[in-house]
Amino acid sequence: MSVTITLTPYSLLSSVILLPFYVGKDIADGIKDNNIGTKKLIHIDEQELSGKEFETNLVDRDTLVKTLLEHGCIIEKEVGNSVKCSLENIQLEFYKKNNDAKTPYSVKIEINNELTVIDTDNKASELLNDIHNEYSINTQEASYNKIKERLEEKNMQIESEEVFDDDTIVITVNLD
Amino acid sequence: MAKKQLKIKLLPNGEIKMETVGIKGKKCLDCVKLMEILADAKVEKQELTKEYYEQEDTQTYYNETKQNIKFN
Description:
The structure holds two protein chains of two kinds. Chain A is α+β, with helices and mostly antiparallel strands. Chain A has helices at 61-71, 124-153; strands at 3-9, 21-23, 35-36, 39-40, 42-44, 53-55, 74-79, 82-87, 90-95, 106-111, 157-163, 169-174.
């Protein structure tokens, strides 16, 4: 090889899928002194999440809505870029602080402790982490489809495609 | 002679990595711009390897003004 580049799709602020908090004693790998990259992490208890707002690294509205629906969330309201949804007793409101398409979403969390919850393991922190992980997988899928379509438009020949155990997809393109 | 290829890796965290194979010299940088356009993505990091500093290829791999790839 002569050059290796790493790229982040415009639908993600960065490829590090991370919320700016950690819950309980579960600390993600790579956290040192409560920092990861440029983000300052805060420790928070699950019960304290209700009423809190955090910035995410999710950027694209369509990918966000697709992810929420696939996860089983009920979309309650969509106005412009804002999306309000719920799952069991957890309500999430995703919004952008300005109308710039590249601005990442912030999320506001509300937990209704008076509602009977069928799945008692359903926690807001896990829901947010699941949404972040599934959003990134949807981003991978969107990138794959887009790249294939554009390679075809440019008459570029695909030598092979492989999917590895860790779900990495490798497309090899001939340039000769 | 080694095949000239582009390896595009799509990771499950959304990140995309691309490496050129068999291309010597600065011509490999043609592929960087190509990749940004193919993937609607921005370059976060770029690493040049020793092949970059070897005698340059004469082929053109991507030309923004042309629809199809043309080779010399």
